[in-house]
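If you are new to this repository, start here. Below is one unmodified record pulled from the training split, so you can see the exact layout before writing a loader.
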Amino acid sequence: MTSAYEHPSLNLLVSDEQRDRAVDWLQRAYADGRLTEIELDQRLDQVFAARTRKDLNLAFYGLVQPSPTAQALGTHPAYAPLVSAQARDSAGRGIAAFSYFSALFTWIFGPLIGYLVAPMGSEAKRQAASAFDFTLLSTGGMIAGGILSEIWSPLGIIAGVSALAWFLLMIVGGAKAAAGEPWENPLMKISPIRVLSKPAPRALGR
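And here is the target side for that same chain:
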């Protein structure tokens, strides 16, 4: 991935933001099946070892082929921002908030849509998964409460408590997500229900 002329910017030191974008780009390529796990690890090692933008390009050798002009000017899809960080963050907050609020009208389908469209490994994806799982958990509580109330009517309170907790915590989660504040549903911390929720992504060299 070299050319007869190399733009001086290729010798600039890699910034943390450029390195983060490179990691995200490679993780997306892995999620799309374009890289094996071993290849991903090897290329991530190159990203973290890269000092200059030219070094960073080597992590994408054979995976992408920038045009000669792009090579000469030092631009590359791994660190050329197509969307500003502010716009990306706003979109992520919107997806997370949608996942919570839409569940009030669509049940699990709104959070599922949010989960499918959120970027791999993003906070928006984690929040959408949490909204989906909590909706299932609360639905189970409502159904259990309805069944138990047939056995002994006072047990019907379980259904009411489950519905109220679901409604209030979905509102809180949506408000926190819209504001960009980190938040974790307190009931999901102790619940074994995990259908979509995934562990936080590993630090990948950090």
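Two things worth knowing about this chain: The chain has two domains: 8-73, 86-179. Confidence is low (pLDDT under 50) at residues 81-85, 199-206.
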